[in-house]
Amino acid sequence: MQDTFFTSKQAAEMTGCTLRQLQYWREKGVVVPTIRSTGTGRSVYYSRSEVMELAVMEYCLGVGLNFEVAAATVKQLKDEGLILIRDEKAPQRFMLWWDGKKGKLELVEFDSKKAIAYLDEGKPVIPMCLDVIYQQLVNKIQS
Amino acid sequence: MQDTFFTSKQAAEMTGCTLRQLQYWREKGVVVPTIRSTGTGRSVYYSRSEVMELAVMEYCLGVGLNFEVAAATVKQLKDEGLILIRDEKAPQRFMLWWDGKKGKLELVEFDSKKAIAYLDEGKPVIPMCLDVIYQQLVNKIQS
Hints:
2 copies of one chain form a homodimer. The relative contact order of chain A is 0.14. The longest helix of chain A has 15 residues. The mean pLDDT of chain A is 83. In chain A, the strands form 2 sheets. A 3-stranded antiparallel β-sheet of chain A has the order 1-3-2. A 3-stranded antiparallel β-sheet of chain A has the order 5-4-6, with helices on both faces. The first copy, chain A, contains 6 helices and 6 strands, in the order E-H-H-E-E-H-H-E-E-H-E-H. In chain A, helix 3 runs antiparallel to helix 4. By secondary structure, the first copy, chain A, is an alpha+beta fold. In chain A, 47% of the residues lie in helices and 17% in strands.
């Protein structure tokens, strides 16, 4: 993936999102591109990591999660600096699971044994394979 | 659980749903009570199985699923006559999993081996334990 920026149209095509979604997420502060011309709001450029954020949003919504959970997941990955895969040794597989005590979905590193235990207890487990999402993005850019 | 009917208020309290949600789901045809007085729309009574449908909606939304997936899940359970647990031998544990070929979540009987295989492939698995949801409902009615 080159160190470049992408227009809204390019970012939408790469991630399978619509331009309307991108606009809505900008308004809601979910994925806000760093480069924006003041005034018109027409010139919007997404960095590589921002495109990756869009792809994660699309993944979350695509598996049937609601907007709030999808946005919270992107935010947490972003806050923890995990959205861009720079280091092969960094954890790339996470999972969302239902935390009954907190009453919400929690994002943690993927752990097969834990995942199975959660399922046995009737808790949902949603894998978040950032490496897979990232690779799909790279493939689209190269094609 | 007695063979009785419940008002909107009772049904909302039992399931943790809001009256606004119940109204919205009636309008959308997701959970439509069989007994309704014509005209005013004020006298609405939910049967036991309809209250169970509400509880399943609440469960699906509570684990972060969007409205469409939650409604589709309730519809499928209803269509297949699985919403009310009458027979202990009937399957009570299902799971939603991501069907990449169909591009949507599928509802199938819970199978631990399959669930683990799906997770290993990076697919989300959301257990639907109807017996647990049903028991929680019974406990609330009795308390």
